[in-house]
Amino acid sequence: MELKNILRQVKEGSTDLVNAENQIRSMGYVPVSDIAKLDTFRKYRTGFMEAILAEGKEAEDIVEIVRAHNETAGRTLITRINEEQASAIRNAFKPENIEWDMHSRTAVVHDGTPALKTGGTVAIITAGTADIDVAEEARMAASEMGCSTIQIYDVGVAGFQRLISEMSVFEENRPDAIVVAAGREGTLPTVVSSLIDAPVIGLPVSIGYGAGAKGEAALLSMLQSCSILSVVNIDAGFVAGAFAARIANSIAEARK
Amino acid sequence: MELKNILRQVKEGSTDLVNAENQIRSMGYVPVSDIAKLDTFRKYRTGFMEAILAEGKEAEDIVEIVRAHNETAGRTLITRINEEQASAIRNAFKPENIEWDMHSRTAVVHDGTPALKTGGTVAIITAGTADIDVAEEARMAASEMGCSTIQIYDVGVAGFQRLISEMSVFEENRPDAIVVAAGREGTLPTVVSSLIDAPVIGLPVSIGYGAGAKGEAALLSMLQSCSILSVVNIDAGFVAGAFAARIANSIAEARK
Amino acid sequence: MELKNILRQVKEGSTDLVNAENQIRSMGYVPVSDIAKLDTFRKYRTGFMEAILAEGKEAEDIVEIVRAHNETAGRTLITRINEEQASAIRNAFKPENIEWDMHSRTAVVHDGTPALKTGGTVAIITAGTADIDVAEEARMAASEMGCSTIQIYDVGVAGFQRLISEMSVFEENRPDAIVVAAGREGTLPTVVSSLIDAPVIGLPVSIGYGAGAKGEAALLSMLQSCSILSVVNIDAGFVAGAFAARIANSIAEARK
Amino acid sequence: MELKNILRQVKEGSTDLVNAENQIRSMGYVPVSDIAKLDTFRKYRTGFMEAILAEGKEAEDIVEIVRAHNETAGRTLITRINEEQASAIRNAFKPENIEWDMHSRTAVVHDGTPALKTGGTVAIITAGTADIDVAEEARMAASEMGCSTIQIYDVGVAGFQRLISEMSVFEENRPDAIVVAAGREGTLPTVVSSLIDAPVIGLPVSIGYGAGAKGEAALLSMLQSCSILSVVNIDAGFVAGAFAARIANSIAEARK
Amino acid sequence: MELKNILRQVKEGSTDLVNAENQIRSMGYVPVSDIAKLDTFRKYRTGFMEAILAEGKEAEDIVEIVRAHNETAGRTLITRINEEQASAIRNAFKPENIEWDMHSRTAVVHDGTPALKTGGTVAIITAGTADIDVAEEARMAASEMGCSTIQIYDVGVAGFQRLISEMSVFEENRPDAIVVAAGREGTLPTVVSSLIDAPVIGLPVSIGYGAGAKGEAALLSMLQSCSILSVVNIDAGFVAGAFAARIANSIAEARK
Amino acid sequence: MELKNILRQVKEGSTDLVNAENQIRSMGYVPVSDIAKLDTFRKYRTGFMEAILAEGKEAEDIVEIVRAHNETAGRTLITRINEEQASAIRNAFKPENIEWDMHSRTAVVHDGTPALKTGGTVAIITAGTADIDVAEEARMAASEMGCSTIQIYDVGVAGFQRLISEMSVFEENRPDAIVVAAGREGTLPTVVSSLIDAPVIGLPVSIGYGAGAKGEAALLSMLQSCSILSVVNIDAGFVAGAFAARIANSIAEARK
Amino acid sequence: MELKNILRQVKEGSTDLVNAENQIRSMGYVPVSDIAKLDTFRKYRTGFMEAILAEGKEAEDIVEIVRAHNETAGRTLITRINEEQASAIRNAFKPENIEWDMHSRTAVVHDGTPALKTGGTVAIITAGTADIDVAEEARMAASEMGCSTIQIYDVGVAGFQRLISEMSVFEENRPDAIVVAAGREGTLPTVVSSLIDAPVIGLPVSIGYGAGAKGEAALLSMLQSCSILSVVNIDAGFVAGAFAARIANSIAEARK
Amino acid sequence: MELKNILRQVKEGSTDLVNAENQIRSMGYVPVSDIAKLDTFRKYRTGFMEAILAEGKEAEDIVEIVRAHNETAGRTLITRINEEQASAIRNAFKPENIEWDMHSRTAVVHDGTPALKTGGTVAIITAGTADIDVAEEARMAASEMGCSTIQIYDVGVAGFQRLISEMSVFEENRPDAIVVAAGREGTLPTVVSSLIDAPVIGLPVSIGYGAGAKGEAALLSMLQSCSILSVVNIDAGFVAGAFAARIANSIAEARK
Question: C: neighbours with 3+ CB pairs under 8 Å?
Fold first, then answer.
């Protein structure tokens, strides 16, 4: 594989570092039969790992893609796994090599390679109990990208005192970035961002019925927020968690 | 006019009260040339007065309608008055017979009849400075329906401490109903409704730009609220104020 | 539990009433494992009880939450219960402690504590037969908040004479507030509000097909109403019923 | 011109009537420079006349098109005329050859040819004063297609008694078809259609603000109506009036 | 029953005809347990019969409503019947008393009373094969209202020659009104209306996928039509058929 | 059949070619019982074949339509086939006469007639693995219209180097037209069109969740593209493939 | 400039053709102060020229950009020019170097370099007179890309005979591609595509009022078309004309 | 003012640091007459400064608010300033105390206090020339929050080589966070995020016409991005710049 060649050239001094980095950043991918082309070097290029969105993929294809990915990366995060895909994964890999999060239908398959530890910290806050599934997907992504995580669940503004009370945990354990998941009216990220000294990523959740249902009101409310937020798409737990971790990792690296 | 006849019959005993009330409730209106049919008895039938929405009406027609209305009611509330209509009103009526609210382009024209005093109290709260115009329309409506009003402006959740601090006014002066006006993400009614012991009417305001602009995010957010609210349309200050006053008047009447 | 302590202090005179009330209003909630934080004191703070929206919650979590809630409140209203959740509730509680409304998939679970009786009266009117399910959710909420209820169903304006005829019931039994549920074109709240002397809360219902289906036309029609209405979200029977009861209870309290 | 030839052949017996009618129906149009191709025979083919929508056309082009049209038809209806176009029309034709309706920005230009009289009757009803402009466009179209018209304006359901009272005019003068114009919540056509024995065409009007504004709520409400209606687009006064006249003319013809 | 009383009074001369007709028009309905209030006299008041929309109703309620309706009307049209409701109808009534249309999930249940024959003629045209289900609902409604019907199916403009060829049937058998059903781009009503001398009612059908799917493009296209059309909601076959029949019946009556 | 008569007349010289072509272009279709009218001559008239959209059709009707179509055309493309329809096709035709594409639920049924070979070349590119189903429908259409096809799958811009690398295949094998299928943000057609010297048809795919899901963002993004593209509807693989083949066939014909 | 160097190397044989072409395709752009980076070599890379969209640019910046572009290309197409920008262009360049199209607010500025002539032919058809402005933008783009153009204006389906009659021009002068511009219901491209043997690009135009206005109905209707079309965005005359010319040029080149 | 008291107590040791910080975080605001309540301590609480959105505020109110704000903060950022407001600012403050950015209608008014320098670096990239106005608002915000900024403008993917070439600036000058502004199809943030090792904030810009215009396609495209992005609302330059600066400042602080 080319990556090894490049690295050997670096070791031998036959290429300089800038050149090697550029090569790694622009060239690598691993074809998986005809159906996929794995961007295994994305982590080196952008700071984000490749993750497998199971939705819309055949169960056997996922297994094949995970195998190919683990060969270069050692660990693979898979999101939005359905029943049939979960069975295929269970059959294909040993139990000790799979870490499941049943709430969020997410799993990590690994070959024994331990998870990264970057020193970054990400907090995940939810407005309600029904937001936990999406929040857990964010937590899994942040965790897999090397961050430690703090969870505070069901502290929406209908009972405002709950948030104030629970936030005391931050006095000892300051998060580098915060993901706030909320459905229905999506108020919580606006309130959190007006109270806490860390960048807040709003994560709208597809709950609620009637006008503005399925996260629409929550998304619009976060985009219109008078507080300063950035936002990801409805239910995009992976994106929110990875983006928060990306920030936390930069800060952690700078701390070193 | 028929109302007087009905009342005289009541006085004379030639009709009973239930019958008289039913007649009043179902029959009265005053035609204004060919263009309007004034529902002057709405107040007796529904507890709401007739108000004149100036938007889309000719200036001279408004003057004519106001005159006709004042003949039976003594006072007329006019909303959403533009420059040209305002001039026509100024020319047609004496200054001492007009009460303007320039913020909300609203006026009351009267023939000396004083405003009603019902004993009800309505609070009007806004999230920002830009919500004040719509809030003032609500205040004028509540006031014209006989309520005393309390205003608390610019206490949105981006600076949450402002709301908490200002709400202390309610300890001595409990409102019977509260209108909360908010644009952009429309969070404030949700928060107020979770903190205060009075029915809250959410009033979305058409400010903000981008996705969910012009009050759309605020309206959806209020409809999706985890707190218990009822809502009126975007910028519908008159409806919000009148509805709040309707509640307050019922309570005030029961107090008597 | 803290509430008892506060009340004992009041009894003993070691705290004054304003202080006690403030404490109750701002501080109480009951954590239920990691998944929920019950706002059991909402009733004291806002006049609305906490209710459990079953939708999106695990069956066993609902049972656990209901148990925790009943410990402080004695009665718990649960809305939007699906088959599996209903079974779990049936297995967990005795039949004599459950009051079901099968139309609206709503239940009250209690420990023998009787429902409140406030003296308020709420009327529930529907345009069609298909609106009854949502209307019943409103009725359950109003009833659980202590109001007596009047139902008038299937009196939409396509056969206008039905409404006029049925409304005679109000001559003896005046409602303090009225919920009007309607799907499709949502005309009925506008008509009722123009005929009756009580505040009307429009409750759009998600029936109808084609453009404006699923309650969209009904919601927009109510927001645009020429009569004076406030509105709740599509199918939000609980919110409509609770809001109407909130008004009725204020009036009933003032009557005392 | 070909039409005359066809008619002469009919007179001479060199063609039969079915054949002549088919030729007329499928073949005629008059080119106006490069910019327009006038469908002057539409009336013979479909029962509807060609009308000129002024919106988006150059003032001088309109004058040229009207001239060309009048050569075969004698009268031309022009809708949605702006200031500049109105001046051009005034300059191009004699005052006695123009019939203006200033409300609806509509005019008929003729060469002395009198309007058709078919014996059909169309009623035009509006919910509010602001709907009159669009209603007048409908009236002009129905009138130009030969119908006599009845107008009943400002009888919306917020003051329901007005409609009932005014409808007595129909007892002597039965309309063959009814156009009901309404903005905001668009309730009136539903109510009229449930009370009157004639086909009702709903005409939504682009008034109102907030959600469902500009006729959206009115259109959806009419499409969802529980009464039986057909509908035209928002502000499409010409289409509503012409469609109603088309029905009335068929009935009138059958009466003969 | 009151209708008989009124008619007897007419016979006896104790009431005059105008009075009797007014009474019938404004007062009658038949309550069906608590769930429905049948508007059995709608036909006398508006020219439209009451029909039962099965969607959203319990199977046993439908049977009960049909029974009540047949007592005064002899025949009942039921639309949008699902499997379970169809079984209930089959069990409750004799086969010889039910007329099914399986395409459109529509049925007529009668007590031997034959269908009306008014002499009106309605044509039903579809653009594609997939529009037939909705078109058949329109045909059933027109037929039940007494019209004879002509069907021309699958003649959309992608193969324009099919329409031209099939329309020759109208030369001998002129329709009084035409329903044109079309999904996807909804072009056909525009083309038919520009070719045929009869009022056209556009009936959008909920087929198609992607942007503008489920009849949205068809509906908008018909509302924007350059030809003169009126429109009903997507899939509203019953409304289209009943409205067309209403026109045809007026013409047929005038012919007599 | 008329086509043969026309062709015989051409052979015999009793008609000239222009006349014959016009007749073929405007007149032919084959009725299939009452449910369909096959436009079998579309290919001669427009360069596109008739294809059968299975969605919304009865299984037995499809078989009947395919039989009728094959009689004049020899081969029939069927798209969007569901399980039940697939069984009916398998039972009705011999295996050697059916070519399935299981990804896209598409099949060709033939009577031994081989597929056309026009010499045109169409490339099909997808952004992700989940776009392959729709892309395959495009490939089947292009292939059935006589083009050879090149597939490049899973080369979206998140790993941009994949596209650059795979595009080298075009150096030897230049496509005449390119279909680019993409869901989610739909970026790939914009990038391909800015890099390659061939007309690009954007094919949005209904994947993705949250705001802009189901192909909406992809469609809008392609319509707004700064590169020069034309676009087809979401999931309209057949249209994209046929349109690309139509271009490629014109070029191939000109090359001859 | 680099292009000349590359070409010289080709001439001298110091580079091969494939290499030279690749260099040209991937590398060139011309910076214009800080505000723009002109992609002057797009024509070599994609077959489309760079055109200047004036909308949103400062007048003086446009002049500067045109100058820079003409240095490498000799001719520059500018679209959507407003009054102020037009003055700046008139002041900056000699009259004989500007070709205006006033309808579409489009201009070509050149340095005497004549327009390309490729031998391709593009037809531009409009449904109405109001579509001509957008159609002319398409014609300018096709013309500037070297095609001869055929215009057929105002032949919409409301007067179907006009289209049939005018299409006879295609018998002598076959177009390689056709742009069909239509607003309101957007029917014409569907009809044209079902009648003519050339690829049709649908161009929706932002006319019409009410639901589906501003080209929305036209766009959706074209995307849903039962005929085979590709589509560009509303009012995107330049894209439609350039895309049609791109096809026509490929065919013309193959003819050589 | 309270802040000084708190700080003095800290100095004197009469309060501890945690307590002092909490007080500052939760309590401070400065009322400006009745119209505004300035959250002057937001910076201490959340890391974001208070900025004045001029849109919708009276010119004199802005001046008053700026004065009040400068008393505690020394510098005030004002965004979306219109002509009239700009004059008022020019009249109220000395030229040397105002820093204008005319592109983005943004200004900083200060009392001589220099801008902060945090050591963070933010890059601002635009797809086109028309995105520069919004991008400059982001740059002003980032700059005012203490970051140095790098601008790369007009490097959209229609000419992809421009981006690659310009990005070489990052090799020496690594940004801590990147704002990518793009209108129309909004592709650029997706591409940048897939190539660069820094968190990317997508900033949709309200340019483009037709479907998806005014930034809608750009916003949806960024929310659906296959790359990992977070997003702010359309034209929300201030939010994007402040959020990017917030990240950069955390990293810069950690570097110290």
Answer: A, B, D, E
